[in-house]
Design a protein that fits this description.
Length: about 850
């Protein structure tokens, strides 16, 4: 079967605007992205982190959602029942700031932004099921935050306490530890200070061990994210030990008085009980509750108070940073080392934090670098108790702490033991004497969830003089944010709303006052993926049945900036909901893809010219407002179309890596789509004869066979790159190669095997569809293929077509590639050797010498060693 040569078509840009508008309209009308009712065993839940509704989609958004959409479309073609929902993380400060600036209610501002953004989502052609939209600032969503809060209160997982906490003066609110990055607020970047306030917390520490251990189940998460979580949770095995406090008036060198029942003790946490005999002082956190009674009324009091307030000025991150000068203050008091009854002086030290361990440290300068620096500065003795195998350490002259293991010295009956064995021996001894024991310590702190802001979920508590803090009963939820508020820019507007504040006590019906703190917005995002499973449920946050059917999320996609924050909170929340009997899973996200940043070149503000690196090449930086190097997705859609934008985003870099924005790259993708457009329009005749299955293809001549091989190979590659690994760029490369192969076929064949040509074009469109859905939909229709492309199955390849009767072999001389030959499938090793030696280029590189050795790697290469 042959046809005439397809007609050449004029070189023109395809009408992307019309095509995209047309197909978006069709998809909307037929609800093409609707979630199947019954997920069954073939469910596939693909989710991208939902955006804050700023009103404008930026390139970072386009990247995440293009990734998710390609997966969603691919999985639908693979016959999966796909859930691909979207919503808005709609509480938070920007809406409140807009309210102050424009005097609009944050709710009105947010809803307008949501409308605008949904429109932009549509214009990108993302296949989202909007019927499942979850918007966290709407009462039908946030009432469930309140419901969970009460459930957690009942279980002792929510509680209120006074603590030294992080305060951002710019945002005028407290922050959780996870929200402080290198001493600065995660949101505004301004320095964080410490304040003592009474706040609500979630007891995430109860789950520390599970959160750590279950990381092992997350085999499809990036190792880097798991490592960050592991470090954040920070498990340390160690010991606690009690140091008896000596009475005031004890001075160094005097006999240590005997133990008395009224003696106070200071408990320490250490990871190195093997060094207990080397303790030469103790250091306490300046905030340690004992400090006051240690110095009160003594000559040390004034100095101590001054020191404490100086340290309190400084952020905890900076205070404990490695290079920070060690500062201390002697309290005038001593405590007794439980293993050798020696008295050691007690200092306050800036690098000791109250929140970790017990807030007290047994200091071993010989074996801990911070203690060493401290001891040298304040002239405190150093005492070596662990000896390295090879050298001898001298207390007086050593210049750094020795922190590795070794043999025990100066440690009485433990001398001579390897220090690793001495650890447990010393802990056993402490335990026998009731002076300590083994313990596990986590760095993770409880999650501070209250915020002094308006635009968040009201914490459902009423304070009553008689009954205290009373939770609002479930049937009175939601506690709704008031409308009668003024946004002046100072303080929490909820404090001025009488309508809101005055509420009867739910218990005694006496006068009460509502809690005016709202919840951290990370609460909202800790369970939204569950709401998507059952978004319209008015009776429950979601039904167990729906959650069981859809969870866990099969593929989650989002920014690495959430490696700890959101991902840790969501994991915690899922475990809490599991323990409340609401879900059956331990972990919410099966597989995680952390997409890289979108970067661009930028103009140096100081010089006014393009910033360059030391090699004179333009520097790249994350697209951002402040650098002025953002590219507006809407402009790209206008100029090139959404398909081009999506294709470029997925082709220009692996999803996990940085994506450098370049006009050339965008142009290249636009050209490719135009080529496909012309290619298909030029082969419409052949498309009529396209079979649906590769196996139906007729054998044909060598050109036909080559194209058959290429098309089957492309199906195989895209199928495995997309299905198993989510490698978008290599998938697109395979599709581009197929387009080339079709062009080559058209230019080298005089006669066309119409079925082969038609099948190749059909396949090209199917493979390209998840990346460029509009143009492929249009071409599919023009080619007269059956139905619409979004209803098609992913093609299957014919394994037989992948077996070639000839293949190419690389020829090397002394390990360097010099030539290539084509050999028959049936060629023997001797045939291949002979063909290699007969090659002209091989001969010339051998320069007339006899080859010493010939290595044949079957199917790949021959290396001739001269
Ligand atoms: C004595 C000692 C000797 C220590 C030695 C270390 C080495 P990680 O691994 O991070 O858990 N420490 C305990 N509580 C502290 C606090 N609140 N603030 C600052 N430092 C504190 O570290 C545990 C070690 O950090 C503990 O072990 C303690 O110093 C110190 F050769 O005790 B170590
Ligand atoms: Zn009451």
């Amino acid at each position: 079967m042959t046809t005439d040569q397809p007609q050449a078509t004029p070189d023109r840009h395809f009408p992307h605007k019309d095509v995209e508008a047309k197909w978006q309209q069709i998809w909307r009308q037929k609800k093409a992205s609707q979630t199947p009712v019954d997920p069954g065993a073939d469910k596939y839940y693909v989710l991208e982190m939902f955006p804050y509704p700023s009103g404008r989609l930026h390139m970072g958004h386009c990247r995440v959602y293009s990734i998710g959409d390609a997966i969603a479309r691919f999985m639908r073609m693979r016959g999966k029942n796909v859930l691909h929902p979207m919503g808005f993380d709609a509480f938070g400060l920007p809406a409140e700031n807009a309210a102050i600036k424009h005097q609009v209610h944050p709710g009105d501002w947010t809803e307008q932004c949501i409308t605008d953004m949904k429109d932009q989502f549509e214009r990108m052609g993302f296949s989202l099921d909007w019927d499942r939209e979850a918007v966290t600032c709407r009462p039908d969503y946030y009432r469930w935050n309140q419901y969970f809060f009460i459930k957690m209160l009942e279980r002792g997982l929510a509680y209120k306490k006074a603590a030294a906490i992080n305060w951002c003066g710019t945002c005028e609110t407290v922050l959780a530890n996870e929200q402080v990055e290198q001493g600065a607020c995660w949101r505004c970047g301004n320095p964080v200070t410490t304040r003592n306030l009474e706040q609500w917390f979630y007891k995430i520490t109860d789950y520390a061990e599970q959160l750590l251990n279950d990381l092992e189940k997350l085999t499809d998460w990036p190792e880097s994210v798991k490592t960050m979580q592991r470090n954040w949770i920070g498990r340390s095995e160690g010991a606690r030990a009690k140091f008896r406090l000596l009475p005031e008036g004890y001075v160094a060198g005097k006999n240590v008085p005997a133990r008395s029942d009224s003696d106070k003790v200071i408990e320490i946490f250490t990871t190195r009980p093997d060094t207990l005999f080397g303790v030469t002082f103790m250091s306490l956190a300046p905030e340690h509750p004992l400090v006051d009674s240690l110095v009160r009324g003594t000559k040390y009091e004034a100095g101590a108070r001054e020191f404490i307030s100086a340290v309190a000025q400084e952020d905890r991150f900076l205070r404990t940073a490695e290079g920070r000068e060690k500062e201390g203050f002697f309290t005038g008091r001593y405590a007794v080392n439980p293993v050798n009854n020696e008295a050691v002086p007690i200092y306050l030290a800036n690098f000791v934090l109250m929140e970790y361990g017990t807030g007290a440290v047994m200091a071993v300068p010989a074996h801990d670098q911070r203690d060493f620096e401290f001891a040298r500065k304040y002239d405190i003795p150093v005492k070596v108790v662990i000896a390295p195998e090879e050298e001898t350490l001298d207390d007086e002259t050593m210049t750094a702490a020795y922190t590795a293991p070794g043999l025990m010295v100066n440690s009485n009956e433990f001398d001579g033991l390897p220090s690793s064995d001495a650890k447990s021996a010393i802990v056993d001894r402490l335990k026998e004497q009731d002076l300590g024991g083994q313990t596990i310590q986590y760095k993770l702190r409880d999650w501070l969830v209250s915020r002094q802001r308006f635009w968040g979920t009201p914490i459902p508590i009423v304070y009553c003089e008689k009954c205290g803090a009373v939770p609002v009963p479930e049937d009175q939820l939601p506690v709704v944010l008031p409308r009668d508020v003024q946004f002046t820019g100072s303080g929490n507007p909820l404090l001025q709303s009488d309508e809101f504040i005055n509420a009867p006590c739910p218990k005694c019906e006496g006068p009460g006052r509502r809690e005016t703190d709202t919840m951290d917005t990370f609460m909202d995002s800790s369970w939204y993926f569950l709401r998507y499973c059952d978004p319209l449920n008015a009776e429950e946050p979601f039904s167990k049945k729906a959650a069981d059917a859809w969870m866990p999320v099969d593929q989650y996609i989002g920014g690495i900036e959430h490696a700890i924050l959101h991902l840790l909170y969501s994991r915690f929340f899922t475990k809490v909901l599991r323990d409340l009997g609401l879900v059956n899973i331990d972990e919410p996200f099966q597989r995680l893809l952390a997409q890289g940043m979108v970067t661009n070149t930028f103009v140096d503000k100081a010089t006014g010219v393009l910033a360059v690196d030391e090699n004179g090449r333009p520097k790249q930086a994350k697209m951002s407002k402040s650098l002025g190097n953002g590219v507006d997705p809407l402009e790209i859609i206008e100029q090139y179309g959404a398909d081009t934008a999506r294709l470029f985003i997925l082709f220009a870099a692996p999803a996990e890596k940085e994506l450098e924005w370049t006009d050339e790259g965008v142009n290249g993708c636009s050209k490719f789509l135009n080529r496909v457009w012309r290619l298909v329009q030029g082969t419409l005749d052949a498309c009529e004869f396209a079979p649906e299955e590769a196996a139906a293809l007729a054998p044909g001549n060598a050109n036909d066979k080559e194209l058959q091989y290429q098309v089957n190979r492309a199906i195989q590659r895209v199928g495995s790159e997309m299905g198993e690994r989510h490698h978008f760029n290599t998938s697109i490369a395979a599709i581009m190669e197929l387009a080339n192969a079709i062009s080559t076929y058209l230019s080298t064949s005089h006669e066309f095997e119409r079925m082969t040509l038609g099948f190749s074009v059909r396949t090209l469109l199917l493979l390209l569809f998840p990346f460029a859905p509009h143009v492929t939909s249009e071409l599919w229709e023009q080619a007269g293929f059956d139905g619409t492309i979004d209803e098609q199955k992913f093609p299957e390849f014919d394994p037989k077509a992948l077996i070639k009767d000839e293949f190419e072999i690389v020829l090397q001389v002394n390990g360097k590639v010099r030539s290539k030959i084509v050999v028959s499938m049936n060629a023997t090793k001797a045939d291949i050797e002979a063909a290699a030696l007969a090659d002209e280029k091989v001969q010339s590189h051998l320069g007339g010498q006899e080859p010493k050795k010939i290595i044949v790697v079957p199917g790949k290469l021959v290396n001739v060693v001269g």
